[in-house]
Design brief:
One of its GO terms (molecular function) is ATP binding. About 40% of the residues lie in helices and about 20% in strands. The chain contains 15 helices and 13 strands. The two termini are about 15 Å apart.
């Protein structure tokens, strides 16, 4: 018997899950270390309906991974962690599938840091920490960009001079692990229909949509970075690049200020001035909260039309992510008046968050996404190989 650990590292948090390896890896525990980089990091482990917590004091990613090892070891009956799977935001043009990580691949991934400066360094810090805490384990990288490598050139490029495309300024797309999971689930649910045209709306704190045809990504709303497309909790989504020129020229803003604005102060938070959290906005009586939701829904509907056009029609629409899975209001408003597209939903099924909520020609599904499960299966496959 052996175990698989999955790690999903952000700037100040490290989410993890523990699986028992087998033909289908079995989830045994989940947890999170919060406030990494502060003096008061905090670890949570949830298993078998119980929650354990530990205060770690000052902790970096290395200390956080050691603490995960410490808290999980007593529950593993002496069996080893044979593989560690890492969510890595950027695989550039190099990876269209998971990869067993070694020194050469890590150097290549370091070269991609400028493309994802807020995510990639933390992902790679977790890899280094896991290599040192689990020196005998196979380390597997699973890339959020990999699923989108199938996109045709017109969806891979911007209309910049070609030299910029060659330098890597392309539309990479993200949330690939979630889309991979959803595609697998659709295959499982309806294995016959390999040519279906599907749009998946991954609506979480980060949000994007993807048009999938025959199981492959054709177009997505996120592009060069995780800023483009839909408005998100705190990120702007689609923005006229002229706005940036204006902010630089007229407001005298520099790179760091603009980066902070676009990543941390926009989206639902910026529009509402209240919160980045959809639950709070839905509960708020204030006009600004309603307008923020109006804009959010409007952009999803616009993208839905564009993505369906990119794949020549639509058979399936999937909602996933924290908002997509839980907000009946957002689902209802996205689907409202979309009968012309074949989209109609049953209010009761929607309110109940049923697996299928549609009554029209387009099947509208709510699927709980599972990015960790995708990573665990990739590690299991690497171990079997
Ligand atoms: P995620 O990043 O996938 O965890 O999604 C986080 C988002 O899901 C936040 O905006 C939450 O407010 C939202 N969310 C979670 N549960 C609900 C719910 N019951 N109703 C509306 N939004 C929700």
């Amino acid at each position: 018997m052996s175990y698989i650990l999955t790690l999903n590292a952000g700037s100040s948090s490290l989410k993890y899950a523990v699986y028992r390896d087998g033909a289908a890896p079995e989830l045994r525990a989940v947890g999170q270390v919060d406030r990494i980089g502060s003096e008061a990091a905090h670890l949570v482990l949830k298993r078998e309906g119980e929650t354990e917590t530990r205060e770690l004091g000052a902790a970096d990613h290395a200390r956080a991974v050691e603490a995960i090892l410490d808290i999980c070891t007593p529950h593993m009956q002496g069996a080893p962690v044979a593989g560690v799977g890492h969510r890595i935001v950027h695989g550039g043009t190099l990876f269209d599938r998971p990869a067993v990580l070694n020194a050469d691949i890590l150097s290549a991934l370091h070269r991609l840091v400028p493309l994802a400066p807020l995510h990639q360094p933390h992902n790679l810090a977790a890899v280094r920490a896991a290599m040192s805490a689990f020196p005998d384990a196979v380390q597997v990288g699973c890339f959020d960009t990999a699923f989108h490598r199938s996109q045709p050139w017109v969806d891979d490029t911007f209309a910049l001079p070609r030299e910029y495309y060659d330098k890597g300024i392309r539309r990479y797309g993200f949330h690939g692990l979630s889309y991979d999971y959803i595609t697998g689930e659709l295959d499982r649910i309806d294995a016959e229909d390999h040519h279906r045209r599907t749009v998946v709306a991954h609506l979480g704190n980060g949000a994007s949509m993807c048009a999938i045809k025959g199981g492959k990504s054709v177009a997505s709303t996120m592009g060069f970075t995780a800023l483009d497309g839909l408005p998100m909790g705190t990120r702007c989504g689609q923005l006229d690049p002229g706005v940036l020129l204006y902010l630089i020229a007229q407001e005298g803003m520099g790179h760091h200020q603009i980066r902070d604005l676009l990543y941390h102060k926009c989206g639902l938070l910026g529009l509402s001035g209240i919160s980045n959290d959809m639950r709070e906005l839905e509960a708020s009586p204030r006009r600004e909260a309603k307008e923020a939701i109006d804009y959010y829904v409007f952009r999803i509907r616009r993208e839905l039309g564009g993505l369906a056009a990119a794949i020549g029609g639509l058979e399936t629409l999937v909602f996933c992510g924290g908002i997509g899975e839980n907000s009946a209001l957002v689902r209802a408003r996205v689907c409202e008046g979309m009968e012309w597209m074949g989209i109609a939903i049953d209010p009761e099924a929607n309110a109940a968050g049923a697996d299928v909520i549609s009554t029209g020609a387009v099947t509208v599904r709510v699927i709980r996404t599972d990015e960790e499960g995708v990573i665990a299966r990739a590690v299991s496959a690497a171990l079997a190989a």
